C-alpha cells in the first residue's frame, strides 16, 4: 500500500488533487469537485470518474474522510499529509515541464533579460517593431543607458 502511486495521466486526476489542496481543511465532497471542474472547463466529470478516483486516493491514504453525511455522495474528503506531499511533487514536476516548454514561447525584457510571463511594457518603434520590457523602470533604464539591474 505504501508503494502505491496514483497514475496521473489525465487532467481530471491532477485537477482533483489541486482542488483538494485548494480546499485545505474545509475539504470537499465528490459533488463539490464535479461542480468546480465544471465551472473551470464547462463539462462535469461523471460520477463514474469522480468516485472511483476518490476511493483510490482514500484507500491509499492520500485523502481522508472528514465526516459529513453518511450517504455516500456527501462524504467530505480532505488531503492527508501524504496527499499534500504528492500534490507538491506534481506541482514541482508540472512547473519544470511548463518552464522548459514555455521557454520556446517566452519573451524576455529588452533591458534586464527577465522572462516575461504576463503584461509586459511594450514600446512600439517607428519601423513597426516592438521592444518589450518587464516594467516601466527597465524601459526607462534602457533608454537612459543604465547598467542592467
Ligand atoms: Zn526588465
Task: Describe the structure using short key phrases.
6 strands; alpha+beta; 5 helices; 2 domains; 149 residues; Arc Repressor Mutant, subunit A; elongated
Task: Explain this structure.
With 149 residues, the chain is of the alpha+beta class. The protein has five helices and six strands, in the order H-H-H-E-E-H-E-E-E-E-H. Helix 1 (11-23) packs across helix 4. The protein binds zinc ion. The site of zinc ion (ZN) has 8 residues, from loops.
Which ligands appear in the coordinates? zinc ion
Major beta sheet, strand line-up: 1-2
Domain tally? 2
Largest sheet report: 2 strands, antiparallel
Q: What's the CATH topology label of the largest domain?
A: Arc Repressor Mutant, subunit A
Mind telling me the CATH class of the largest domain?
Mainly Alpha
Task: State Rg.
Answer: 22 Å
Order of helices and strands: HHHEEHEEEEH
Strand content: 15-25%
- How much helix, percentage-wise, in residues? 40-55%
CATH architecture title of the largest domain: Orthogonal Bundle
Give the distance, in angstroms, between the N- and C-terminal Cα atoms: 51 Å
Number of helical stretches of at least 4 residues? 5
Structural class comes to: alpha+beta
Number of beta-strand segments: 6
* Low-pLDDT residue spans: none
CATH superfamily of the largest domain: Winged helix-like DNA-binding domain superfamily/Winged helix DNA-binding domain
Mean pLDDT: 86
Annotate the secondary structure layout.
Blueprint: H1 11-23, H2 30-41, H3 47-59, E1 63-68, E2 75-79, H4 81-102, E3 107-108, E4 115-116, E5 121-124, E6 130-133, H5 136-144
Antiparallel strand pairs: 1-2, 3-4, 5-6
Helix pairs in contact: 1-4
This protein binds zinc ion (ZN).
The site of zinc ion has 8 residues, from loops.
Amino acid at each position: 500500500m505504501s508503494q502505491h502511486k496514483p497514475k496521473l495521466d489525465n487532467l481530471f486526476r491532477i485537477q482533483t488533487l489541486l482542488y483538494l489542496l485548494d480546499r485545505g481543511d474545509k475539504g470537499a465532497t465528490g459533488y463539490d469537485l464535479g461542480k468546480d471542474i465544471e465551472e473551470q472547463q464547462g463539462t462535469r466529470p461523471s460520477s463514474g470518474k469522480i468516485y472511483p478516483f476518490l476511493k483510490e486516493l482514500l484507500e491509499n491514504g492520500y485523502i481522508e474522510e472528514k465526516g459529513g453525511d453518511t450517504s455516500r455522495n456527501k462524504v467530505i474528503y480532505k488531503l492527508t499529509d501524504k496527499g499534500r506531499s504528492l500534490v507538491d511533487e506534481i506541482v514541482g514536476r508540472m512547473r519544470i515541464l511548463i518552464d522548459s516548454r514555455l521557454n520556446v514561447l517566452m519573451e524576455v525584457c529588452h533591458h534586464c533579460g527577465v522572462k516575461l510571463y504576463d503584461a509586459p511594457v511594450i514600446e512600439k518603434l517607428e519601423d513597426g517593431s516592438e521592444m518589450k520590457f518587464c516594467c516601466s523602470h527597465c524601459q526607462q533604464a534602457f533608454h537612459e543607458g543604465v547598467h542592467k539591474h
